[in-house]
Amino acid sequence: MEVNKKMLSHEQRLVITNVFHRLGWALAVAAAWAVGVVFLGYFVELLIDHRVDSFLVSLQGIPGVLPPVFTMILLGYFLITAYDDFKWTIQNGISRKTLWWGRLIALALATVGIWVVNNLLSLFDHPLASWQAMGMQLLVLLSSTLIFQMIGNGFGLLNRTWKWIVGIGLPILFIIFLVALIRAMMSLNIGYQHNEWIGPNSALWTILSSSSTWWIIWGITMVIVIFLSKFFNDKMQLRRD
User: Fold this and answer.
1) 6 confidence band (pLDDT: 50, 70, 90)
2) Other CB atoms within 10 Å distance of the CB of residue 115
């Protein structure tokens, strides 16, 4: 997929090229390691049982290990490289606005590219899923990548000490909150008199069971995610840590 060059400035193309160069190397290295480790495991089995036919059959499953690896690298890149990309753009006289749009375009193109490659690799194991299922996979992957970019941009504002504090503290607080919420809901003693509010025929149940509701929630969530990602991007500063 190629974006019309007339729609992009020279600086935006530099940002996109930089993202694809670094992401491409990360994908290549991760793929080499994954294939090497899996192949080594199969080769050790061949040395033990001397079954060449089983070894050859096992090799056919190697492409199946790559889709989750590619997905993790894609998410990981936009999670951990926000500050490095920002520092690179500032050193090359590129504005935060250009950085934002360049990374966003690169994110969209990389996500579509990984989605296509993952589906092609899945042909080694099973036929392609329906277009609806594949479209949902792309939507989930794109949403996840945007969320990871938002988190990465937020972490880009923090020095190393605060990254450790926030990176460890927030998940712990979230788990504590989730456990407390589950316990509170389990302790509720809801009688039949409240069925009009939360029962199977209630308005709340009708709203939550509608697919439109979840699309609206997804849309609002993505707007918030993109807004926060842009906000964090614009607040990044060069640090000495």
Assistant:
1) low
2) 22
